[in-house]
Each structure stands twice: as C-alpha cells, then as structure tokens.
Automatic annotation (TrEMBL):
Entry-annotated residues carrying N6-(pyridoxal phosphate)lysine: K48
Pathway this chain belongs to: Amine and polyamine biosynthesis; putrescine biosynthesis via L-ornithine pathway; putrescine from L-ornithine: step 1/1
Identification of the protein by name: ornithine decarboxylase
MF GO annotations: ornithine decarboxylase activity
Family of the protein in this entry: Belongs to the Orn/Lys/Arg decarboxylase class-II family.
Any single GO CC term annotated in Swiss-Prot or TrEMBL for this entry: cytoplasm
Length: 403
C-alpha cells in the first residue's frame, strides 16, 4: 500500500477525485498495546467496529489474541486472516446454523446468550451424535443501563433482572465455563457506567448462587471527538479492576472486555473533495451512505481540517451534503472550517476508523475509495492526549506532526 507522510502531501501529489481512506496503523498498534498492557484482564477486539483484514493483522501483531465476532461472516473472516485467534461469538441471537458452523468448522467454543431459547439452540447446535458438547464457554448477557453512553445498547439485548438467576443456573449446567457479560453502550463518557453495571453483576451472582468463571464488561470505551472529552482510559480500567475484585467470584475468575471503538477510532480518517458550496453547505464526495453514517444519522461531530496552505482566519460553521441524490445524505455538523472554503478544496475528516469506514455502501454508484497509509498523528488521541478541542477542530494544514 502506498504511503505518504500526511494527508496534505497526498493532496499535493494526487489531487484525488474519489474520497480517500487514510490509514494510521501506528495508531491502532498503540491502542492495542495500551489495552494489552494496561487493561487488568483480556481484551477481545469487537470486529464489528472495523473488520478490515489489515487492521486485524495489526491488532494481532500488537498482542490482541481474542476477537468478539457477531456473525458467521465475521467468524469466517477472522478465522481466514488470523487462524490462531480465539473467536468469541458474542451476538446473543444467532441462527442454529451459524452456531453449528462456528463450533464444528471454526473451533468457536465461546458464545453469548440472553434467553433460554438461545441456550437451547446452542446446546442443540454444538452436540455431536446426540452427545452434548462438554467444552462450551457460555456468557449470559444481562441488561444494563446505557445512561452514561452516547449510543444506547440497552434496548435490544440482555436478560432482565427477574430472569437472570434462572438463566444463569440453567447455563451453568450446560457450560464448562460460565460468564456474565454486559454492554454499557458505546462511547461511555464516565467509568461510573461500569461501576453501576458491576453492581448488577453482583446482584445476579448472589441471587443465582452460581460459580462464575468470566466477567465480561463488554465495549463502550470512548474515543475523543469534538465536544466529547472523556476521562483517561486508566480511570475506566481502575474502576473495572476495583469492582471486579469486589465481586463474589473465585480467584481464578477471568476479566474480559470487548473494545471496538477505542481500538480503531484513530486508525482511519477520510479525505474528501468539496464539489460545490452553497452558502454554508458543502457538497462533498462522501457521506451518509459512505463512511459518514454516524455524522448523518446520529449527528456525530467529527474533527475536520482544511487541506490548504492558507485560508481565512475567520471561522464559519458548515453542514455537509454527501454525493448521492438523496436529501438524507446530509450531515448537520456543525463542522468548523475557514470561512473561505470553496469547491475544489480538500478536507480531512478524522476519527473514522470505528463505525465509519466499516459502514460504506455503494448506494447510487458511489462508495469507491482508495486506501493510503499516512505517518502523522490522528486528529485526536486518547493515547497521546491530543484532544480534538486542543486542535480547535479548525485547522489549516501543518498543525499535527508525527510524534
Ligand atoms: C457485543 C458487543 N461487544 C462490543 C462492542 C463494541 O463496542 P464499542 O465499540 O463501544 O467498544 C459492541 C458494539 O456494538 C457489541 O455489540
């Protein structure tokens, strides 16, 4: 893959007509090493956030050995590129065929569930010639609040408190190893989210009186975006460690987490071209059906930088239209850019490694992109303490450098 020192060198060399994905493997490697070294347990990468094979290989090389997969497609993908990885099938609602293939063809032994029906499916699908599997690692997902997170994951999955004890007892009988899992919602803005969820774990263990071998605190670890400045990740890890140590579980119980966003948000950004300006609306060549789904659908604000040597000192607020013939291809922002931005300019949109590049479609014939690696720092980082706000979310080129 071609490499440039930074986005502005690429613009000078290529002046590309299609949107470009800028990859920073060094940022993903740094995030992975941080989790491997500092999280007080095992870190499973949530593949959903960005399934790119190059990223999977980067994370593996940095020490991430466990992968949270949610579909048979993700099972096959990770198994193909990382044959020695441990795969954990953490979607609580799976087809029996997917469970059977994962278990019998891909060596998956870890599954999550949040109902008796799912438990029965897993037991049936993993049996061999009528004999139940004796090597299952089963994690019961409990419902916890998403109140501290920017994106809720509280509605769809998770056993209710009234049904948890019964389900834990039944799952214990089918499992070689029993886990309890939860997800506090994505982009959790305070460690309190985990402390509160751990209280639910405690109540469930006490009520069910079962031996629990794994506590899986899920994903939700934040990244840095304009207007969203979370506390340091160490504060999350300390809270999780302390509350885990207080649980009524054995010394040999394992602590797991499933970070998606935190491992890959800084991995990729997007370079777009302005095709037209109408007042303070910029028509750019990627959008809601491309890598900017969250900017359009949940009004997520990403950091932006005008790729021009000089620009107006006056800053204005802009909204973006994507390239499709569709009014919904609209990103309200506001995105703060020099007031004289115009058609033909290039803009880097940062922090799109998680739930950005992974969401691309080819709707309306758009979606083509080329990947290049760049060596400079991402627009914001939780690992080097560069915050999107410190950079002002308003840039001309040249403020960042490789560190
Ligand atoms: C089961 C599960 N684990 C982990 C994640 C990753 O979450 P995050 O990207 O917020 O860390 C998700 C995301 O939806 C998920 O559904």
């Amino acid at each position: 893959m071609y490499s440039y020192p930074d986005a502005s060198s690429l613009v000078r060399a290529l002046r590309p007509d299609e949107p470009i994905t800028l990859l920073r493997p060094h940022a993903a490697e740094r995030a992975a090493r941080f989790f491997v070294e500092k999280f007080p347990g095992k870190s499973l990468y949530a593949v959903k956030a960005n399934p790119s094979p190059a990223l999977l290989e980067t994370l593996w090389a940095a020490g991430i050995t466990h992968y949270d997969v949610a579909s048979l497609g993700e099972v096959r993908l990770v198994h193909k590129f990382l044959p020695d990885a441990k795969l954990c099938f953490m979607h609580p609602v799976k087809s029996e065929r997917a469970i059977a293939q994962a278990y019998h063809n891909h060596g998956v032994r870890t599954f999550s569930l949040d109902s008796h029906e799912e438990l029965e499916k897993i037991v049936r699908a993993t049996a061999t010639d009528g004999t139940a599997a004796a090597d299952l690692e089963l994690c019961v997902r409990i419902r916890v609040s998403s109140d501290h997170a920017k994106l809720s994951l509280a509605a769809k999955f998770g056993a209710e408190p009234a049904e948890v004890a019964d389900l834990l007892v039944a799952t214990r009988q089918a499992a070689d190893s029993l886990g309890i899992a939860f997800h506090v919602g994505s982009q959790a803005m305070t460690p309190l989210a985990y402390a509160e969820a751990m209280e639910k774990v405690r109540a469930a263990i006490v009520e069910a009186s079962v031996t629990v071998d794994i506590v899986d605190v899920g994903g939700g670890f934040p990244s840095v975006y304009p207007g969203m400045e979370p506390p340091p990740l160490e504060a999350y890890f300390e809270t999780i460690h302390r509350t885990f140590e207080d649980l009524p579980i054995s010394y040999s119980a394992e602590l797991w987490c499933e970070p998606g966003r935190a491992l890959c948000a800084e991995y990729a950004s997007l370079l777009v071209k302005v095709e037209k300006r109408r007042d303070n609306e910029l028509y750019i060549n990627d959008g809601a059906y491309g890598a900017l789904f969250d900017a359009a659908h949940v009004s997520w604000r990403f950091p932006v930088e005008l790729m021009r040597e000089s620009g107006s000192d006056e800053i204005s607020e802009f909204a973006f239209y994507g390239p499709t013939c569709d009014d919904m291809d609209y990103m309200a922002g506001p995105f703060l850019l020099p007031a004289d931005v115009k058609a033909g300019d290039y803009i880097e949109i940062g922090m799109l490694g998680a739930y950005g590049c992974a969401m691309r479609t080819e709707f309306n014939g758009f979606g083509e992109t080329e990947d290049f690696t760049v060596e400079d720092e991402p627009m914001a980082s939780l690992y080097t303490r560069i915050a999107a706000n410190d950079l002002g979310n308003v840039h001309h080129i040249g403020k960042r450098s490789a560190q």
